[in-house]
Design brief:
single chain; alpha/beta; Nucleotidyltransferase, domain 5; Actin, Chain A, domain 4; five-stranded mixed β-sheet; 10 helices; 41% helix; 24% strand; binds adenosine-5'-triphosphate; binds magnesium ion; ATP binding; ATP-dependent protein folding chaperone; Hsp_70_fam; ATP-binding; stress response
Amino acid sequence: MAVDFGTYNTVAALSDGERVLLFDGMPLLSSAVYADRSGALVAGRDAAHLARLDPAGFEPNPKRRIDDTSVLLGGREYPVVEVVAAVLGRVADEARRVVGRVPETVLTYPAAWGRRRQGLLVAAARRAGLPVAGVVSEPVAAAYRFAALEGVAAGRTLVVFDFGAGTLDVAAVRAADGGYQVVAYDGVEDLGGLDIDEAVVRHVGRTVAERAPAAWARLTAPGTAEEFRARRLLWDDARAAKEMLSRTSLAPLPVPGYEPGVHLTRDELNDLCRPLLDRAMRTLHGVLAAARVAPPDLAGIVLVGGSSRLPLVADRILRELGVAATVTDQPEVVVAHGALTAHPLPLPA
Ligand SMILES: Nc1ncnc2c1ncn2[C@@H]1O[C@H](COP(=O)(O)OP(=O)(O)OP(=O)(O)O)[C@@H](O)[C@H]1O
Ligand SMILES: [Mg+2]
């Protein structure tokens, strides 16, 4: 089994065939965690639901907390390793249910993560009962998947553009000795779907703060549980509207306390994304330069991660580099699938 622990989603691919584990019927397990009043940790979609009543116990993106020693949930401190283990524990439980045992597991990690962060991930997996066989970096895993589907000749270079929820990771990966090696890498730690959501919320604020200042003040600085709940709803709806705009040109966005709500157009979203994509494209150009490879010589550019579903991403790459990027049906699961066939690295000490 291979497990891609993401900022927003965790994906587990099974070694037999093309299967991924389903969680409540879905291929993506929400990485969110909630601490209930008894101190027990609940991970997955239920965490967000439970947090509606008690937002103080909620951590939507534990991966972003990887450098903290502990996380404060519902007035109690939890070691980060325990919070991550709660998410991976869902994977172990589901594997046990479906396969009958917990299979040997390869874990993926962002290319920017050093030994310490990798070690923490491995410790969390072991705590969750996953027998860890090795680790592999996310872009290398994605390269294996791409190679399995399209084939990459030895010596050729491929670029993986992983635009997820928390970070952007761009890696140039070269095929050599039957494996893949990262030859150039750059990442932006604070550039992902969550940052687009934030830009959408700020955009909504420009309208609502003027028309309903009291409602907007409650949403930006919530005090009561109900106000926290309202803020979370707004963020969830901002994300949903953003995702809908990959498919349509207009999306409604309800705003708690502001009855008319607002509408967002795809052009408005594109304007909001532009400065973020400018940074992403600078990163991509930098990686190509560091890898000393010209766009026409690439074996391909693979788009990975849910945020690469934004049509603007492939459009910009085509316009600036003249390369039609490879888009897969489910960019969220590419890393987990690829990790199954990757040569895993030995475990960090
Ligand atoms: N249709 C869509 N349009 C735009 N963004 C989308 C779409 N579908 C999903 N996303 C975004 O993709 C992100 C989730 O992608 P993914 O599961 O690849 O991230 P992750 O692996 O959890 O994060 P990371 O790799 O940064 O740790 C979310 O921010 C989500 O809003
Ligand atoms: Mg990811």
